[in-house]
């Protein structure tokens, strides 16, 4: 459905995207995960046609769209800021999205009514964006992208402006809408928990390079590099050198017990609701473990690794 062939982007002499090749299947919910400055939004803008590639090819439905403007790519886009016109009512915002469509006015109105009912915003048609909650604005932004019935939906950090309490219901809505419309979706985020929760597959990007692509379980359980491991999971993976090997271990794979093989000193203890996150100084490194009980800072603790990932050898 969407194919990238060795796509590269320079800003001046700085390489922002480094020869990325990727295939996204029809109807797939594909998440691009990366920290700030990794190139994830630039990659999305290249697919949208908002930036020109320096080299490489972009295909949508086997059509080369590399040199086509955004209006010719049959895409819908939801921006981080929602991109709603503040002086236009919801109905007018949706109508603007169809202004370049060849369908007649009656069909446009019918399409707007249909999508607004599906996204439960029909009762907001006469409201201005400033009169809407953050969650309602997001629904309008999604409707604005989908009312054109595009082949592809591109979403750039659409939850970042929402309160934490709203994010769970919002991502559930996005996943529900995506499945109902069976629309091929590329979704950009820096939040690994968000990526793991909603993606069919995840592509991890760092410094403009695509480091790993896989289903959420593979990305979480079998990261191919320390860079991927450090980006995925909250709390993140700890790294430590043992017997000449660099290993990565997640907090839930460290068990604190009196007869443990290893020993360290507790440097910090944080209450995370259902458990305590314990920071342990260990062999010039720090590992994080989970405990059901609070452990005093400065205490010596013994522990074992239930499982771990080997990343390199000396």
Automatic annotation (TrEMBL):
Residues 91-118 form a coiled coil. GO terms for cellular component: ATP-binding cassette (ABC) transporter complex, substrate-binding subunit-containing. SUPFAM superfamilies: MOP-like, P-loop containing nucleoside triphosphate hydrolases. PROSITE patterns: ABC_TRANSPORTER_1, ABC_TRANSPORTER_2. Keywords: ATP-binding, Cell membrane, Coiled coil, Membrane, Nucleotide-binding, Translocase, Transport. Residues 2-232 form the ABC transporter domain. Signal peptide: none annotated. Pfam families: ABC_tran. GO terms for molecular function: ABC-type ferric iron transporter activity; ATP binding; ATP hydrolysis activity. It comes from the Archaea. SMART domains: AAA. This is ABC transporter, ATP binding protein. It comes from Saccharolobus solfataricus (strain ATCC 35092 / DSM 1617 / JCM 11322 / P2) (Sulfolobus solfataricus).
